[in-house]
Amino acid sequence: MPTVLRSVPYRFYFYSHEPDEPPHIHVDRDDLSAKFWLDPIQLARNFGFRANELRTIQSMVKGHREEFLEAWNEFFGIGGG
Predict the structure, then answer these.
(1) For the whole model, what pTM was predicted?
(2) Would you say residue 62 lies in a domain?
């Protein structure tokens, strides 16, 4: 479960057993969790976050999208040479 970013109070990560899904990022805070697709950025699932916090998280995903995609592609051996 590679962690890509920690930004208090959030942890952004993906699961190593999800290579067949489109690029995405999970985010947790306490016992709350959400999943965002990265291309295009879109909420896939939400487990407990309120709408205003999801907007904040989505903005963070947008700001770190390239970093998340790079980590995804590097981990799963996509692209590059």
Answers:
(1) 0.92
(2) yes
